[in-house]
Amino acid sequence: NEVTFSIDDRGAAKAMKLNTRTLAMEELIPNFDEQFYLSSVHKGELYGTYANALRPSEVAVLNGSGVEKLSHINEVVLSQYQLGETVEINYKAPDGMDVQGWYILPPDFDNSKKYPLILIIHGGPHSMYRNQFNYLWHQFASDGYVVLYTNPRGSTGYGSEFANVIDNDYPGMGDLSDLLSGVDHVVGKGFIDESRMYVQGCSGGGVLTAWVVGHDDRFAAAASLCPVTNWISMVGTTDIPAWTFEWFDVPFWEDPTNWLDRSPIMRTGYIKTPTLFMTGVLDIRTPMPQTEEMYVALKEAGVDTVLVRMNGEWHGTGRRKPTNWFRTYGYLTEWYEKYPE
Fold it and tell me: 341 vs 123, 191, 200, CA distance in Å?
């Protein structure tokens, strides 16, 4: 009479139980805000993987008291290090939209000091950041950055209306305001050096990074990874042309207005922020020409820019080879440390 399953909800992966007769649904761990991914059942016990803000996934089991970790593989490395605290935030965009996010503080954080900030934007755009360990973000935090990540409108885990509000309206002013309001929220806490704020993202996050700097000059530098910059040229070269056509109300040959208005490359004349572009050479989701087009445009417009072609990588720049992960981190860090000059 019962079905148990995992569901993404407000930045958490929760184990849920559904009574198939009454259709009543409940959380197996009430108010759970971390990550448990159910994968198997044995003798009535629920097994899966468990992760939180301080540790990657470990094998775990659900019992009466909550989650019990059965493996401790990550302790071999991570127990040697002090990690920064992850803090949840909830704030409103100017139009009243409720947005959830988190920021990671540097280890040995001192509230009386000022720290640089990196805003990291997720891809998708239908995706969800969560209260979960991320190697790159903790590396940035250990370098002294406050790392901010949020779930702007269009994200999953907050209901269909929240996810679908960006349909035919992406990138748009709504997701832009959600992201910048998150920055304002953290800046308002008084420990951010506003002259050293940075923004980055990959895929849909690369789109929104280019979109942000095309509308706002507050960031000292930006890094747009594997972005879409020109929707019209994108649809003819990507491996998801059907999805791309569906993203717009009419084909571009009937009316190119919306296609152009939502292409970050068309905002080139407004961009002042030094912007690094980095894409995998083998990428067919957001192909290299998308990066090259906007890199050339910024060069022509006199904006500081760099193009990194990541050999051996598909969609994303540090997934196939550990050495490319380190290269990605190194290129980003070197770029941010240059600005402000």
Answer: 30, 21, 19
DSSP 190: S
Could you tell me which residues come within 8 angstroms of residue 59 by beta carbon, excluding any fewer than 6 positions away? 47, 48, 49, 50, 69, 70, 71
Which H or E element spans position 148? strand 146-151
Identify whether the C-beta of residue 190 lies closer than 8 Å to the C-beta of residue 153.
Answer: no
Report yes or no: 99 and 128 within 8 Å, Cβ to Cβ.
no
Q: Name residues whose C-beta falls within 8 Å of residue 306's C-beta, 6 or more positions apart in sequence.
A: 276, 277, 335
**Dist. CA 228–CA 214, nearest whole Å:** 14
HSE, CB side, 13 Å, CA atoms: give it for residue 150.
Answer: 28
**C-alpha triplet 92, 93, 97: angle, nearest 5°:** 70
307: nearest Cα among 286, 333, 335: 335
Q: How many CB atoms lie within 10 A of CB 155?
A: 25
Closest CA to 316 of 328, 333, 331: 328
Q: How far apart are CA 54 and CA 12, in angstroms?
A: 14
Sorted by sequence, the CB contacts under 8 Å of residue 269 that are 6+ apart come out as: 301
Report residue 91 CA to chain centroid gap: 17
- The percent of residues in the chain predicted with pLDDT above 70, rounded, is 99
126 labelled catalytic = no
Q: What are the strands, taking DSSP E only, across 203-318? A: 221-225, 275-280, 305-310
The catalytic residue among 57, 181, 203, 263 is 203
Give the type of residue at 234. M
CA dist 118 and 137 (Å) reads: 9
List, for residues 98-145, the tens digit of each pLDDT value. 999 999 999 999 999 999 999 999 988 899 999 999 999 999 999 999
Active site residue 224: no
